[in-house]
Write a structure and sequence with these properties.
The complex is a heterodimer of chains A (253) and B (295). Chain A is an alpha/beta fold and 253 residues long. Chain A is built from seven helices and ten strands. Chain B has 295 residues and is an alpha+beta fold. Classes of the chains: A alpha/beta (253), B alpha+beta (295). Chains A and B meet through helix 2, helix 3 and helix 4 of A and helix 6 of B. The structure holds adenosine-5'-triphosphate and magnesium ion (MG). Adenosine-5'-triphosphate binds next to helix 1 of chain A.
């Protein structure tokens, strides 16, 4: 699987910027409480924290499925808390999401599920089919192009979900426990795919509470606990190519 | 290897046949109402022409002996008629003419002198003027007790009024059917939105524009409305032709002949299109309303 790098003037200066963001559902307690951080283009982070810490909630804010209760969120240099509704689809198309519960459409085949982002963007049928089957072959599902999700194993579903998230060459990839249902070998393969995307400029955030995954590669960590977010650089940070920095604007312990 | 035509696959929804049937039934009803209204309209025009043309005023019969004395009354009525606005002329039929008319039936010389023969006044009306016949009748009867406008005229006048009410009712039916169509399309679109909410939410989250989602609903309901509407129209055409055959045998009342070639009835062809437009607009608005509730 090869992705072509596109060089030139950067489309945006910052991918994500949270300013004093708070979130609570209905009348529940604050899930997020004054969270501030910045993700620069080409960065790669783990998002960690115990179950229920709010990892999925934080991702939802980023993929515009949830509005914050307070604070300001800037995506691709656009203030999305103040954006017009009709501008949101364009922003969402720059974001690929691997949902924790996959969210595959059971009445569509694996091929059709993965093709969705391209169809929405109005791509031609031929291009879609070639492109999609190539990607599905790469994640090891060339034999299940026409299979529907209910007939797939959890690991296979997860790979379909990952393929759907990356098919549109997103600028920001958000993966919620993308290796939760696959063995370490497959997990590393998925990580390599994400790394390859990251090399050509995609900003990546992987939410996980799988410490073994976190320890396989040295990546900065966004750590969520009790509604607060702190940024941790890897223990023995090596200056690798690209900037993988996250700057805590404020807060943290 | 193939890609589905649309993600929502609304054509598999179980509501499809039911909605197609309902739209068909509505177009059928609307077509009959429109036809009825148009037929009544044609009839009104013919009747009105008759009314405008002329009418007959009848005075109580007199025997040969009283004929001379009756001429005064006849003159009064004629002058009252001539004073009436919209009356172009009034001419009393000479008694002799009446007698000769009767002789055709009763035989020459068979009419006894003591047979009371009514006096008839032929009234010509100015073209394009409508006269309140009930009012005229009252005035004439005041001048000459027993004077009355021939029944035909008054009955026709009332029939015209009835016909207008029938036309209003037909219009009301068409409007009601249109509203019911809006209600049904709203209902079925909401059902579709609920049935496919997971798919719709996902499409929304990965960046589908509202139009992309609405288009699938619109295409679906427009197709169903067109097919249902055309079938309903065909059924209505069958009914109208059947009625036309029955009506062709009836010659009274100058009832108009019904023909599907009538240029007015060509308007019926637009009914399935009207149904499709109603479906399109309603579905689009309903989907837009629902999508506004998503984040
Ligand atoms: N839609 C919702 N309505 C109300 N409360 C919610 C909703 N979604 C999440 N929560 C609550 O918010 C808190 C954080 O949930 P979230 O799913 O973000 O955690 P998480 O870190 O992703 O957990 P996990 O590791 O188990 O996936 C939880 O207490 C959860 O009950
Ligand atoms: Mg979660």
């Amino acid at each position: 699987m090869r992705f072509c790098a596109t060089r030139g003037a950067p489309e945006f200066v910052l991918v994500v910027r949270f300013e004093h963001v708070g979130l609570r559902y209905e009348n529940g307690p604050n899930v997020l409480d004054d969270v501030s951080f910045t993700l620069e283009p080409g960065s790669f982070h783990f998002l960690t924290g115990p179950s229920g810490a709010g990892k999925t909630s934080l991702l939802k804010l980023m993929y515009l499925a949830q509005r914050p209760t307070k604070g300001r969120i800037v995506m691709f240099d656009r203030d999305v808390t103040a954006a017009k509704r009709r501008d949101l689809p364009g922003l969402r198309r720059r974001i690929g999401v691997v949902f924790q519960d996959f969210r595959l459409l059971n009445h569509l085949t694996a091929l059709e599920n993965v093709a969705l982002p391209l169809r929405i963007a109005g791509a031609k049928r031929r291009q879609i089919e070639a492109h999609v089957s190539e990607l599905l072959a790469w994640v090891g599902l060339s034999g299940q192009l026409e299979a529907k999700p209910p007939t797939l194993s959890d690991g296979e579903k997860q790979r379909v979900a990952i393929a759907r998230a990356v098919i549109g060459r997103p600028r920001l990839l958000l993966a919620d426990e993308p290796t939760g249902n696959i063995d370490l070998d497959q997990g590393l393969r998925v990580l390599r795919l994400f790394e390859e995307l990251n090399k050509i400029g995609t900003t990546v955030v992987i939410a996980t509470h799988d410490r073994s995954l976190v320890s396989t590669i040295r990546l900065p960590e966004l750590r969520l606990a009790e509604g607060r977010l702190t940024v941790h650089q890897p223990a023995r940070a090596q200056p690798t190519e690209g900037s993988t920095r996250a700057v805590p604007s404020r807060g943290g312990l | 290897m193939s890609l589905a035509r649309s993600e929502l696959q609304l054509h598999r929804d179980p509501t499809r046949r039911m909605v197609g049937f309902l739209i068909g039934a509505m177009v059928y009803l609307a077509a009959l109402a429109v036809t009825g209204g148009l037929m009544v309209g044609t009839t009104i025009n013919r009747w009105s022409d008759d009314l405008r043309g002329n009418l007959t005023v009848q005075l109580p019969g007199v025997t040969a002996a009283g004929a001379a004395e009756a001429t005064g009354r006849i003159d009064t009525v004629v002058s009252t008629l001539l004073e009436t606005q919209g009356v172009a002329g009034a001419r009393a039929l000479p008694r002799r003419e009446l007698l000769s008319l009767l002789e055709r039936w009763l035989g020459r010389g068979n009419i006894p002198d003591d047979l009371p023969i009514p006096a008839l006044i032929d009234v010509t009306l100015e073209p394009g003027v409508r006269i309140d016949l009930d009012d005229l009748q009252r005035r004439l009867a005041r001048e000459v007790p027993g004077a009355r406008i021939s029944d035909n005229g008054i009955v026709l006048d009332r029939l015209v009024r009835l016909a207008h009410s029938v036309q209003a009712a037909a219009l009301a039916i068409v409007l009601l059917v249109g509203l019911a169509a809006v209600a049904i399309i709203t209902f079925v679109t909401r059902a579709g939105l609920a049935m496919h909410h997971e798919t719709i939410e996902l499409l929304h989250l990965i960046g589908a524009r509202n139009n992309y989602i609405a288009r699938q609903f619109v295409r679906h309901v427009v197709g169903v409305a067109l097919v249902g509407g055309i079938l309903g129209l065909l059924a209505a055409a069958g009914t109208i032709l059947g009625l036309a055959r029955v009506a062709a045998d009836i010659d009274v009342f100058r009832w108009p002949t019904i023909s599907l070639a009538d240029p007015q009835l060509v308007a019926l062809l637009t009914l399935p299109l009207v149904a499709a437009v109603i479906a399109m607009v309603t579905a689009r608005l309903t989907v837009a309303g629902a999508l506004r509730r998503l984040p």
